[in-house]
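Lab manual, section 2.4: Encoding a predicted structure.

Procedure: take the sequence of the chain (349 residues), apply the prediction step described in section 2.3, and record the output as structure tokens. A sample record is shown.
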Amino acid sequence: MKKQLKKTVQELEQPNVDLSVDYTAVDQEPQKQRPMGREYPLARNRMPEKQLFEFAEYKSMDAERISYSNYSYWKSVWQNFLKKKPAVIMSVIFILLIIFTFIAPLISKYTIETARIDYDKMFTSPNGEYWFGTDNMGRDYWCQVWHATRTSIFLAVLVAAGEIILGTIIGLLWGYVRSLDRFFTELYNFINNVPTIIYMTLIALMVGKSFLVMALAMIFFNWLSTARNVRNLVLMYRDREYNLASRCLGTSIGRILAKNILPYLVSVIILRLALAIPGTIAYETTLTYLGLMDVTRPSLGILLRNARTYFLDYPYLLIFPAGIVSIITITFYLVGNAFSDACDPRNHV
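Recorded output:
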């Protein structure tokens, strides 16, 4: 028994590598089957350096990729947003409101083109024929309200999207590129020191009062606050470690802004967009009240301006457009806050 144990210990202490074998020859004859089992350190020591090492090709797209993950940013945003039930309900209401602005002319007896002036029916209260009553000229108020809603929503979304996109792009460059800071700061001070209503008045008198002209004017002057806010946030993230590492790896400025910084700003951008839409409707109402908008095309601002004289005697002229403006304002406030929280990467698990 002792002899068998001694023999087994001696077999374990002996290496499995046969030093008499010339592994260089084995490497030079790939057609022969190499012995299976342990690696051969002596053979590796005799291999040339070109066979041991291989040049790693640099790829900018894979420079920062260290592992693969099934995480999807927008999928996580959507899942977090669906947890906010009041915001989901209000967003559904707003979608139905937009759809109804296209359905309402089809089910009404009159359209904005066929509504006639009839002073015998002026200030008619809501009834079976005139569902929202008539205005001071006897025209059907139902078709005017829904046509004005569609016009105001289109104008508000156009202006809000334009000013947010322009403000975000300028804000990113303003905060990240140091050489542009002085230029954009002076431009901001030059435009912001003069009341915006003065610019709008000059444009309305010199260029025109059409919806397109005033929409472009509002975009041109309303990007300032968004750009300023984005610029201050970019200054916070610009010199963090992962951005410094991206610069050292040779990553382009556009990719750093789009991949490293912009995801942290999405929540702020969404919130500003949600608040800019009802803000644009309110601003359009102010411009209409001052006579700086084209009144030949009905909008909620124009209806509210016209109702200010008669709302004490005929309150329905103010209730219907003001109710729609209130729904839009509350909807975007709730949806904007909920979507802003959902877009924040810090809330993703």
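Check your result against the sample. The longest helix spans residues 253-289.
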